[in-house]
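Hi V.,

Quick status before I head out on leave. The structure for the redesign project is tokenized and pasted below; the design run finished overnight.
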């Protein structure tokens, strides 16, 4: 990929600090940095979700209670149908952790 600043070839770089996270992207000797747009978008979405109170509806399929996650949560955490997650139950709290 070419640097939009100086038109030189940019080098792929992993773990570039972005907000409080590290993501992949490209860097140029002129100091220009280009973040992977998909990863950057996920982090911006995560930050947005952190500031919100998120509600989700419980459904039921046969004897199982189903937790329906909002699309933004799915996208931000990169969750997929069929993927296993860890559940932590404490008092009235349920924490869902991506493995
Ligand atoms: Zn450059």
């Amino acid at each position: 990929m070419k640097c939009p600043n100086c038109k030189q070839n940019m080098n792929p770089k992993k773990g570039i600090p972005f907000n409080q996270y590290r993501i992949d992207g490209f860097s140029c000797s002129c100091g220009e940095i280009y973040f992977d747009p998909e990863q950057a978008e996920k982090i911006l979405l995560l930050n947005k979700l952190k500031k919100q109170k998120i509600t989700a509806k419980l459904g039921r399929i046969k004897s199982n209670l189903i937790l329906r996650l909002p699309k933004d949560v799915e996208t931000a955490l990169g969750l997929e149908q069929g993927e296993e997650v860890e559940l932590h139950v404490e008092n009235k709290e349920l924490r869902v952790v991506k493995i």
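Above is the designed sequence. The helical segments are 37-50, 71-77.

G. will cover questions while I'm gone.

Best,
W.
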